[in-house]
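User: I'm writing a tutorial on reading structure tokens. Could you give me a worked example: one chain, its sequence, then its tokens, then a sentence or two explaining what the tokens reveal?
Assistant: Sure. Here is the example chain.
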Amino acid sequence: MDANKTCTDCSTGCAECADGTSCTTCSSGFWKNATSNMCDVMANCTGTATFYNNGTNTCDNCTNGCAACQNATKCTTCAEGYYQDPNTTLCTLTSCGDGKFFNNGTSKCEDCLGNCKTCNDSTTCMVCNAGFFYEEATGDNKCSACIDDCTTCKDNSTCDTCMDGWHVEDDVCVDDDCADGTYWDKDAKACTNCKEGCLKCKDATTCE
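And here are its predicted structure tokens:
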């Protein structure tokens, strides 16, 4: 009702209004613009990280990490630094875990090379899994297996460290096969006596 006490149409998109410049409720297909206090058509709800909420006829923000979304629970594009979680369809901070890397192009966590623990892309590896080494010099760009019982190595013929119960001898892993009352001393690189009265031990102070 205007100043002349006559009924006047609300503006387009308003289902209810206090006057010609302030909508209180929007019609279906329109959303309440908090800035103008008017109702805008659904097509105008295209701002960054927003979606049209049919239930409330409002233009709502997507959840944190979404650059674009269909609704409050489904992101279609993630913001930089986030990836899409396939289990929830929401966007999560980029911590992909071992064996995966974050692809900025797809905004998803993707697999590293086989047997690669840490990488920045799908073609190169920074750190291989235990028991593997990276063959970059040969141009193969892959993680290949060390020799048997070896946990770290530079190639497939030379071992740096071995699994528990084994030690490096002449660049290969050899079983810590010491007689009763002795143990393999890695520093001395020899079988060394356990403490007195000990039949089996792993070092000079601990008896098993």
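What the tokens reveal: Residues 178-208 form one domain. The CA atoms of residues 80 and 105 lie 10 Å apart.
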